[in-house]
Structure prediction request, 196 residues.
Amino acid sequence: MIVVAPSADVSDKAVIGAGSKIWHLAQVREDAELGDNCIVGRGAYIGTGVKMGDNCKVQNYALVYEPAVLEAGVFIGPAVVLTNDTYPRAVAPDGSLKSSHDWEPVGVTIKEGASIGARAVCVAPVTIGRWATVAAGAVVTKEVPDFALVAGVPAKRLGWVGKAGFPLALEGDVWVCPMTGAQYEEHNEKLREVQA
Prediction:
């Protein structure tokens, strides 16, 4: 069953997956596609044609501008902004008001299981890797590798996180999740999970 709060504004042209919930004052624009069991929090904005996989959470007042793509299991914290204009201007050089036809939107891609902390900004075009974590308040201006923990302005990698979201500890030549015991190997500043 889909739940849409009475004060939410959901386009008839949006596709909403089974079990999804859209809360008060949220807006989901035309041609947006939400997978199954997604949550869109109070006052959040999901732009035209945005694609969200199953089990995504977009928290209160987050702004997800088109053409963003969120793979399955992505977490978007409160007041996060995913931009879509590389060179934003309200007017053209001649002073005339720009329209939607005067620029080409570019998107943010967030891979499976990644989390974006509260009030972070991801400046398009950029890709956030699988299971990565962007710290609250960070400004992401370049690609984030899988399993990376990034923070700061501009965001830089501080360490690695596992699928459970906890920082990994280096034990010998492998990185280990303190919560699950999962092991990861680092090679050329990239991390991959060790298959048991």
